[in-house]
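Researcher: Structure for this, please.
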Amino acid sequence: MTYTLPYKTKQFFFGLIKLSIVIGAFYFIYRKLMHNPELDFNAFIGFLSKKDAFSIKNMLFLLFLTFLNLFFEIIKWQKLVDPIKKISLKNAFEQSLGSLTASLFTPNRIGEYGAKAIYYTANYRKRIVLINLLGNVSQMCITTIFGCIGFCFFIVKHQIDINYYKLAQFLLIALLIIGLIGFGMQKTKLTVKGFSIKKIKHFILEFPKKNMALALLLSLLRYMVFSFQFYFLLQLFGIDISYLEAMTVITSMYLLASIIPSIFIFDVVIKGSVAIYLFGIVGINEIAVLSTITLMWLLNFVLPSIIGSYFVINFNLPKADN
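Model: Predicted structure, token format:
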């Protein structure tokens, strides 16, 4: 004998889950701002007030850069999903911001995979997870390419002492592990949630190259926007550094921060620690760096998450396609 919950009870619990996600996101934002071990909130506000650099013109420009960053991400999601299901710009906007809110306090934004998949019916969800992976990989590729270039220039210019023997050992071990994992996957019929590695490989290889190339282009545009936004904030704080020199540090920072596993809400802390070290080498004070990191987080993650909370609260499970 099976017992099913009444419809109204299901709706109540579903609403409670959505409310819990939003409250959890807001609580973590509050904790990060008020209990940041690296940057006291009052010191942060005091530094901003003392600089008096945020005119209406500057704030509008910063918000415009935030809008561009979001716009490129939303378009990228729409174009990546396009081969399996046509979605409107409004749908892409809702899914991108809603999933950002839902994944805010999950390790390495892992919650985004499930959050985006739940916007689709069961027959699409496995492919949506893989498409989201492709989107993240495209952004990581751009971060890695520009990060490696910037880091090389940074090392050469500032003569950073690196133990190349240990670095070579680490890279060799990493390549061997990746090689063994790849070989093991080839020889075993491994499945992930009922989706075999063979099917995953087939899906990725058969994914339209045009859409993937467009995703890489949009990832590049996003990268250019938020790295320039970082530089612009440094300029507002009166930091005397050229654009090219700043880019070597910023690209290096994003590379190093992206390869350190973290809970997304503490991404600002990790970027802060890496940035303090890197910018310290070029003689930029700690408070300016941490304030820039915090403002970047507020503009590009907190603000979209606040908007996304509306979509989380109003989310309804998708109905089967006709």
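Researcher: Any notable elements?
Model: The first strand starts at residue 191 and ends at 192. Residues 262-266 have pLDDT under 50 and may be disordered.
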